[in-house]
Design brief:
The protein has one domain: P-loop containing nucleotide triphosphate hydrolases (Rossmann fold), CATH 3.40.50. The longest helix is centred in the C-terminal third of the chain and has 16 residues. Helix 4 packs across helix 5 and helix 4 packs parallel to helix 6. It is built from 8 helices and 10 strands. The strands form 2 sheets. A 6-stranded mixed sheet has the order 6-7-8-3-9-10, sandwiched between helices. It has a 4-stranded antiparallel sheet with strand order 2-1-4-5. It is globular and about 50 Å long. By secondary structure, the protein is of the alpha/beta class.
Amino acid sequence: MNEEDAKALIVLRDVHRVYRMGDNEVRALDGVTVQFDRGDFWAIMGASGSGKSTMLNLLGCLDRPTSGTYLFDSMNVAAMDDNGLSAIRLQRIGFIFQSFNLIPQLSVKENIELPLYYQGWTAEKSHERAAALAHRVGLGDRLDHRPSQLSGGQQQRVAVARALANDPQVLLADEPTGNLDTRTGEQIMQLLMELNGQGVTVIMVTHEPDIAEYASHHLRMKDGRVDTLEVRTRA
């Protein structure tokens, strides 16, 4: 393995994603080639319908290409069956959503523990891991609270902690500040930058230029294709 291959976490080569709706054919991704290296922080941008959400779903193994190559840590994801995709999602990817996607009936601790339950962790180890992650995102004193007892920013911090539970190789964030006020959104982005500084690869979809500025790499989608790629120097 050469140095470039060792750096690459995700590689897409000539990836197409075509949806058929009756007689109509929608090319959501139309020949995308891009490499996401370990430890990078990416912002994916573009107008509605540009393909950025399809890209994130594909990167998160929630979908697979119609054609082309998708390599995750040198594994050929495009050829995997549903069980293989599920294993990648569970063990290697953390998801952060605009709407938090917390389970309202569960406490902060129980929400964070959820991915560990599916991996078969013991209750004792799960409790320890959840408590440590809650402290890491500044919610160590909220372990027994329900989501309805938390602010939007606190709920998103729980979502970040849950995304980190499986010690993922990459965090995928879909509009992570979309439901937050400006100040709270900045706090969440500072948290993501801290995690990225600790070596976590972050790939984020956003339509907000000021939020995209937190990322070191910008990818702009247009009509299902990569329109521009830019490496930036963050302040």
